[in-house]
Amino acid sequence: MRIYCMSDIHGCLPEFEEALSMVLEHLEKEDAKLILLGDYVHGGASDRGVLDMIINLQNKYGKDKVIALMGNHENWILEGISTIDHLIYNIHDLNENDEKYYRWFETLPKYHVEGNTIFVHAGINEEAGEMWEQKTDDKTFLLQYPAKTGKIENLHMKVVAGHVGTAEISGNPEFHDIYYDSESHYYIDGSVRKSGIIPVLMVDTENDKYYRVTKNGTWPVLPYGEKK
After folding, report:
1. Contact status, residue 112 vs residue 67, Cβ threshold 8 Å
2. Of these four, 44, 81, 104, 187, which has the most CB atoms within 10 Å of its CB?
3. Closest Cα partner for 157 from 188, 135, 124, 134?
């Protein structure tokens, strides 16, 4: 199975369309899935376009082939009200046409497991080892900060997450690509609203391999700072 994944779209519809253009042909031809790791909205005019595109993809391919996870932005809407970047999300402000989005948010899972990989918006309770599913609370799934790095003890799995920009994780403000810590974590939030980039990660679950998908080809993801 090949899993194509991206995260933290934040209402950036053209960038989302660009990232999808590298993926959709694979969904048509391969034993493949698309997993989206949350934060589809940001309180802007393009939010509905992003949501409509995801919902239409699920209608076309099925929710078992296009999997959308919950992000903290979607959860904030479900909670009723929150603020970010001085914008207010309030479910009570939704009109009848927006009600479908609210109902869709309610169906979003907080994580997905495929092969040796846990896909999640922010993180898991790594101290719980093999009991991570039972021991991880919603705050960790959706809001874990700072990003965890290094080897996860007592759990022989990898974590693919978004939520924290890879520029912050790497300490390099110019880095907006996939961050791999050489141990257990792949982070894929490219801070699209700053960088204009939504990185696409492909996970080959059969061989436990991880690749960066680009217009110019598919390349193995190396640990941050390691050159080919």
Report:
1. yes
2. 187
3. 124
CA distances 42 to 12, 35, 191, 193, Å, are 9, 19, 12, 10
Find the farthest-apart pair of alpha carbons in the chain and give their distance in angstroms, rounded: 52
Distance, in Å, from the CA atom of 143 to the CA atom of 163, rounded to the nearest integer, reads 7
Range of weakest confidence among 9-18, 88-97, 174-183:
88-97
Phi, psi of 156 (to 5 degrees): -90, 60
Tens of pLDDT, residue by residue over 51-73, are 999 999 999 999 999 999 999 99
Confidence band of 96 (pLDDT split at 50, 70, 90): low
At residue 135, φ and ψ (nearest 5 deg) are: -100, -5
- What CATH number is given for 2-220 in this structure? 3.60.21.10
Separation CA 159–CA 61 (nearest Å): 25
CB 42, CB 11: distance < 8 Å: yes
Q: Beta partners for 5?
A: 35, 201
Lowest mean pLDDT among 30-34, 45-49, 117-121, 141-145: 45-49
Please state, in angstroms and rounded to a whole number, the distance separating the CA atoms of residues 32 and 227: 29
For 7, the token pair is 């995260």
Contact between 123 and 130 under an 8 Å Cβ cutoff? The reply is no
pLDDT for residue 11 is more than 70: yes
> Cis link prior to 199 (omega < 30° from 0)?
no
| CB count in 10 Å sphere of residue 213 | 21
